[in-house]
Specification:
It contains eight helices and nine strands. The chain has helices at 48-56, 93-108, 131-142, 165-169, 181-195, 218-231, 234-237, 244-252, and strands at residues 21-24, 26-27, 30-31, 37-40, 61-66, 153-158, 197-202, 206-211, 257-261.
Length: 263
């Protein structure tokens, strides 16, 4: 698919009213030929994400929160790798997850059928609000003083859809598991379609999405848990009691946000 023009080089003349910020073109191989993202110099606050969503869409930019973590790791130190990132639309989510499952599940999960169970169906119940409004609400919660990411900074990324944001910047947080982020984004696209997810926050090796249409029954959550394990085994392997059914009940059932971390 043809690449959309990147509006970041002309951001200063775009008419967007933005706070002071930084354009990032630094990658693991030196400067990229164009900026990959813009992010603010100061922490975001409730309302920031929604404001950037409304403004950025007019010029082809989508918002995401950038979490520097306790070490203050901002995107210019993230080893971004756009040169090894393909296009999400070139990959099939079920094929990607099936490959991951075959590589990890037989060795890591006890008493589990080795066969990939397939994609979970979309939840039968509609979500409480539109996916974009749920995303804005979660971003507000995350950036409150007592939220998950109180120091997070707002960013704008040139992307067609929220699920593509990690690939659009060449994010490499999952490099020890998957070094082509576009394959993960193919899964995010599928979740966007079935569960109304939006990529709300990125850290050096973390990814958080809002969920506009979460599973509302244990059966739906258990079906989805297999996808989460294939997508990010560390979510289960690094979190006692290391059980998919417990993970489904505690982390997926009626949950408005999912978080992932790759070791």
């Amino acid at each position: 698919m043809a690449t959309l023009p990147n509006p970041l080089p002309s951001l200063a003349t775009s008419g967007l009213q933005l706070p002071p910020g930084t354009l990032v073109d630094e990658t693991h191989n030196g400067p990229w030929h164009e900026p990959l993202l813009w992010y603010a110099d100061e922490p975001a606050s409730p309302g920031t994400w929604a404001g950037l969503r409304a403004a950025g869409r007019t010029v082809g930019l989508l918002p995401v929160l950038i979490d520097g973590g306790v070490r203050g790791q901002w995107p210019d130190t993230w080893d971004l790798a756009p040169d090894r990132t393909s296009y999400p639309g070139d990959h099939d989510a079920e094929e990607v997850l099936g490959e991951y499952w075959a590589e990890c599940a037989p060795d890591e999960l006890d008493a589990v059928d080795d066969e990939w169970p397939g994609l979970a169906p979309a939840p039968s119940a509609e979500g409480p609000d539109s996916p974009d409004n749920v995303a804005a609400e979660m971003a507000d919660r995350f950036t409150q003083r007592d939220g998950c990411f109180p120091g997070a900074r707002a960013a704008l990324v040139p992307a067609r859809r929220s699920a593509d944001i990690p690939a659009a910047i060449g994010w490499s947080g999952s490099v020890n598991y998957e070094d082509d982020t576009a394959r993960l984004c193919a899964v995010l696209r599928s979740w966007e379609d079935r569960f109304g997810i939006r990529v709300v926050a990125l850290g050096f090796d973390t990814l958080t999405v809002s969920v506009g249409r979460p599973p509302t029954t244990l059966a739906e959550a258990r079906a989805l848990a297999a996808e989460h394990f294939a997508f990010c085994p560390d979510n289960i392997e690094q979190n006692p009691p290391y059980d998919l059914d417990v993970y489904a009940e505690k982390m997926l059932l009626n949950q408005a946000a999912w978080s992932f971390w790759w070791d």
